[in-house]
């Protein structure tokens, strides 16, 4: 199928814009690849330290220096449901590596925090920057120069982007991402949402709310809604870093163990020691990045990836910008309805055909680059298959059926849920912002109302409880960007604003902070840049100013007399309370160095 002209045009634009940075990156990783295993150049003392704790067989293989040695970088902890299954993975990976004459060692661990636990809490102010910490920790883990490829064990919000940024700094090494899978389906998402809204209105008790939440988040595995964690899994598969079909197999399924073991065998096969060398820095190129953005639009994925994909691309010497997301969104139809953009969860999505069906549809429509390299081999068509266990309980692949098992969840390109991906850029006197409208009712694409300005999300809830927001209103929450307080997720606003909208009011959110994959049905202009803490125009807003958010026109207007607007001083806020406690004092350097949200919100950026 001929590549869609918009996909080709955007890819060419990114490639041309990135030419200098990408060439420098590739030169660095080519130089790092060198000749043969790096550990062969270690002194005897260095090498002996590297295998001192190994068993006799692994020690002999490492002494010989010619068998592949796989580094395992793991985000395991047993507090978080998504990462608890990873406890067993190193044992499975080491066994599988030995079965093909290779070795594997746990190179290091990275932190894994959960936005679901820290939501609305002080700890959330560390969340975005945990991505940078994970990237740094990954680099430390691989710095011993003992490895020929790496296996990355991580699932959730900042963990996979952080691991990939770290992996790309070792871009000469092959990389395979090894997911744990989603938990089985629990309380239906629409029922959970109803209880949350009833609680926000004071009509449900805390015990009722806790019971609903516990019935939804009930076992090992990723949360089943389509937030950042499950968007991560989609991205890793569409960008060719998962084994085909690996994303959405439940942790307790024997197929999950088979896929985990195969990841080690495949990693051993694609090192520079063999004849199918597949370094991650070559796999993640402009085409793979565009494929990831297309997948995000086609599935209605998390808005957090407006930050993460820009940061990931930069780590590979690629200059991805928000206008690229917007241009691709106009060309890519929405093919999936998964909560919060529908009532189904990711298990229903997978049962309906999942990524194998979706990738097939995108390939046939020319909406993704099929000629990419992947860890499975050349060509994205390798991913239009379903993973199964054969009669001998061995991993096998069968062609995808080519049809959706549930058109209320997953549809073909010819009959999409929407003709576009639902992402818009908004521009105006406040700067730039993003809005995801894939779940927003059509009659809410344009909201014009007086604004009410807040500096903290808990102030919104307090004003709601006092009855001050029971009207048409655009809620502005500012001083929530990376420089102000680390850009915590503002997901706690969703139930409150949803209640107001259900009461018939015309409601929207404008913020220099971020929402999440769970942003939902209330129109939300997020990631406003420049942020208030950097003197952005959002800091000039006052209570009662009339704002007009127009997702059709792509504008965010302030209906204030121009002379008055230009004469206003930017408001300030006391940010001293964001500087200490819960470890925040350790992150001062991150806040001071953070890029704007439209540049990824991180501390690394494009390396010259």
Automatic annotation (TrEMBL):
> Is Cell inner membrane one of the keywords?
no
Pathway stated in the Swiss-Prot or TrEMBL entry: Carbohydrate metabolism; Entner-Doudoroff pathway
Binding positions ([4Fe-4S] cluster): 156, 223
Q: How is the cofactor bound?
A: Binds 1 [4Fe-4S] cluster.
Q: Which cofactor does it need?
A: [4Fe-4S] cluster
Residues annotated as domain Dihydroxy-acid/6-phosphogluconate dehydratase N-terminal: 68-381
* Enzymatic reactions: 6-phospho-D-gluconate = 2-dehydro-3-deoxy-6-phospho-D-gluconate + H2O
InterPro entries noted in UniProt: 6-phosphgluc_deHydtase (IPR004786), Dihydro-acid_dehy_C (IPR042096), DiOHA_6PGluconate_deHydtase_CS (IPR020558), ILV_EDD_C (IPR056740), ILV_EDD_N (IPR000581), IlvD/EDD_N (IPR037237)
Signal peptide coordinates = none
| Span of domain Dihydroxy-acid/6-phosphogluconate dehydratase C-terminal | 409-600
Question: What Pfam families would the database entry show?
Answer: ILV_EDD_C (PF24877), ILVD_EDD_N (PF00920)
Enzyme class, broadest EC rank = lyase
Function, in words: Catalyzes the dehydration of 6-phospho-D-gluconate to 2-dehydro-3-deoxy-6-phospho-D-gluconate.
Q: Which NCBIfam families match?
A: edd (TIGR01196)
Q: What is this protein called?
A: Phosphogluconate dehydratase
Say which species the protein is native to.
Lysobacter cavernae
